[in-house]
Amino acid sequence: MDRKLQKSELISGKKIEISGSKSETNRLLLLQAIYPELVIKNASDSDDSEVMKKALQKQSGEIDIHHAGTAMRFLTAFFASQKGKEVVLTGSARMKQRPIHILVKALRDLGAEISYLENEGCPPLYIKGGELKVSEVCMSADVSSQYISALLLIASSLSKGLKINLIGEVASAPYIKMTLALLSEIGVSSDFEGNTISVRPLENLHKKEITVESDWSSASYWYSFVALSEIGTSLKLSSYKKNSLQGDSILSEIYAFFGVETVFLNDEIELRKIQSVENVIFKYDLRNAPDIAQTIAVTCFGLGIACELTGLHTLKIKETDRLEALKSELAKLGASIEVSDKALFLKSGGTINENVSIETYNDHRMAMAFTPLMLKTNIIVSDSEVVSKSYPDFWKDVESVVIQKKEH
């Protein structure tokens, strides 16, 4: 369904409730499958988490995870380590193009029985679960942190635990630290020193309840809305912690550059637009938070400022090639933009074209990242319901905090 967004303004002082972090929820769901004593509160209501939950209940047969990349990585490790389970993991056409060979090789080195059913190195996968008796493995660390987290999540269930020797510079390190912090919360001990991670086994878990923090990636779109609003505009979001496990919590620091102040109030945050932005170039290395790159690029375009975003090599293998998608859609709006394999360069200035239809490429973040431009122009978001992958209530929330601008 295409959604026409009329030029609007943000209603100051509103509050939005955002569901639990998809990243935290999916990790905890896998841990809950291993340790049923774990109770999860404020779980994400995203499509990805629903897919994960249903898949973990299956013992055998085909499991279609659609576009859910996190689920594909985590479930590959989970089913490989589950004796007696035999599954085929498959997904969308795009999922069948997304590489998984680094994780599969590591699992095979640990003793897993996994084979490719179509293209070598990509899903669908045939997995026959068994006991993984090897307790040490080497793995490339510079492609996706999810491969590493997938191994860490099953590590404590292995008889001798697991030692992972990482090769190369670690991509998205905060997500690995998130995984280790969640393991620590349920009583798993680990060490992360240099390029080596060691996780010790945990046989039993006493009943443990964990409340999931709201999703910082979802907060990024509201940061963009406030950044593109008039000085004095504010918006509240719940439930967020100052000492967050999520890498995307760096938003509070990044958006200060765009004139947005973040105030932590108990379990919520208030975003306040306190100043305008000088016409200078915004430069940032996003290797630890690549999921907010689209939002930041669109914010810079909406503000008419230049940006240079680096550390984006993982965007090529997401739901779409996000760098090429950004280049194409921003150019339609009037942007002067260039991309490389791991960077994006946006020039300042230029007018914003009206009534442009934004293609979303089956990518939830494309739909949501471009939506704040409705504060600047009329736009059309194609296949708008793709947002349900991570934020099902997004459009309802948008409607609750914007009002159509009256042109004078």
Short key terms for the protein model shown above:
single chain, 408 residues, four-stranded mixed sheet, 12 helices, alpha/beta
List the total number of helices.
Answer: 12
Roughly what percent helix? 25-40%
Overall 3D form: globular
Biggest pleated-sheet summary? 4 strands, mixed
Mean pLDDT: 95
State which percent range the strand residues make up: 15-25%
Q: Would you identify the regions where 5 or more consecutive residues have pLDDT less than 50?
A: none
Numbering strands along the chain, what is their spatial order in the largest sheet? 3-14-16-15
Organism: Capnocytophaga stomatis
EC number: 2.5.1.19
InterPro entries: Enolpyruvate_Tfrase_dom (IPR001986), Enolpyruvate_Tfrase_sf (IPR036968), EPSP_synthase (IPR006264), EPSP_synthase_CS (IPR023193), RNA3'P_cycl/enolpyr_Trfase_a/b (IPR013792)
Catalytic activity: 3-phosphoshikimate + phosphoenolpyruvate = 5-O-(1-carboxyvinyl)-3-phosphoshikimate + phosphate
